[in-house]
Amino acid sequence: MDVWDLHCHLSGVPGKTPEARLEKLLEYAGRMGITRLCVSLGMEWDPDPTPEKMCQSNDEVLRAVRAFPDRAFGFVYVNPKQAKASLDELDRCVRDGPMVGVKLWVARHCNTPELEPIVKRAGELKAPVLQHTYIKATGNLPGESTPMELAELARRHPKVSFICAHTGGDWELGIRAIRNDKNVLVDLCGSDPTAGLTEMAVRELGAERVLYGSDAGGRSFASQLGKVFGAEIPASAKRLILGENCKRLLTPILKQKGVSV
Questions:
Q1: Is 4 helix (H, G, I), strand (E, B) or coil?
Q2: How far is CA 186 from CA 119, 139, 176, 212, in A?
Q3: What is the pLDDT of residue 24?
Q4: Are 1 and 243 in contact (CB under 8 A)?
Q5: pLDDT, tens digit, 9 for 90 and up, residues 169-191
Q6: 101-104, strands of its sheet edge to edge
Q7: What span, in angstroms and rounded, lies between the C-alpha atoms of 177 and 112?
Q8: Is the confidence at residue 157, as pLDDT, over 90?
Q9: Exposure of 195 by Cβ count < 10 A (0-12 exposed, 13-18 middle, 19+ buried)?
Q10: Which of 87, 131, 155, 246 has the most CB atoms less than 10 A away?
């Protein structure tokens, strides 16, 4: 199978430079048969970055993916509280650069008005939006989004593709929250391998809306692959989840950039 990992980071990985860290990630991924990685957030995570920090984070990812253009793609990290800087970064890194998606984390709830210009610009560029989502028993961070909030955003932008990262953490609620929103896919990354997660996602959403991701270096490739290989679903569904869905999701923007996969 051609395995594409939708959700990776440079943090938590050995190496003093972005290039060294991505090289190490690719070494680990290669052992597991993973051919492509999508990377975001830079070497150190900042939940509410200034324009300068946002630019630095994206520069690090640009350096990394330019060193391995046949193995890695970049997602631009933006902060809705920094509207102009975020739009500038979208143009710099996606329109004029090699990045192929948008990463949103925890600076602002994703159903707030500040996201409107960012999502509109992402749609114009054909860039899918990877939104961190969680439902935490201990309570979310002040700006941390839930799958329910992502569903609100997705309904306002039906032509933009969104990824509900981590399947919302509490995946039984997360899957149900975005079930009727066809422009929202889920990624399986980050949590412990749990029986039933992948099966429910396939049953409720269809295999075409489920994506493999690892959250490496915060999680291992192997543990997250286990969610798919160990699931009681058809082999055809596993192929979709492990690579074909991600490839289809990125094809419009890759084609626009003249990249053949």
A1: strand
A2: 18, 21, 11, 9
A3: 97
A4: yes
A5: 999 999 999 999 999 999 999 88
A6: 3-9, 34-40, 72-77, 101-104, 129-132, 162-165, 184-187, 210-211
A7: 18
A8: yes
A9: exposed
A10: 246
Do you find a cis peptide bond into 97, omega within 30 degrees of 0? no
Tokens 């949103």 appear where? 104
Domains detected in the chain:
3-256 (3.20.20.140)
Question: Between residues 1 and 27, which one has the greater pLDDT?
Answer: 27
Residues 78, 60 contacting (CB under 8 angstroms): no
Please give the model's pTM, rounded to 2 decimal places: 0.97
In this prediction, residues 92-119 reach a mean pLDDT of: 98
Give the model's confidence band at 260: pLDDT under 50 very low, under 70 low, under 90 confident, else very high: confident
Distances in Å between the alpha carbon of 148 and those of 48, 214, 226?
A: 22, 23, 27
Name the helix (H) or strand (E) containing 5: strand 3-9
9 near 75, Cβ under 8 Å?
Answer: no
Give 153's pLDDT tier (boundaries 50, 70, 90).
very high
Determine the residue type at 104: L
Q: Kindly report the average pLDDT of the chain as a whole number.
A: 97
The number of CA neighbours under 13 Å toward the Cβ of 160 is 29
**Do you know the residue count of the chain?**
261
Tokens of 146: 């839930």
Structure tokens at 90: 């979208």
CB atoms within 10 A of CB 169: 20
User: CB neighbours of 235 closer than 8 A, spacing ≥ 6?
Assistant: none
Beta strand 184-187 with 210-211: parallel, antiparallel or unpaired? Answer: parallel
Q: Which residue has the tokens 């999680």?
A: 219
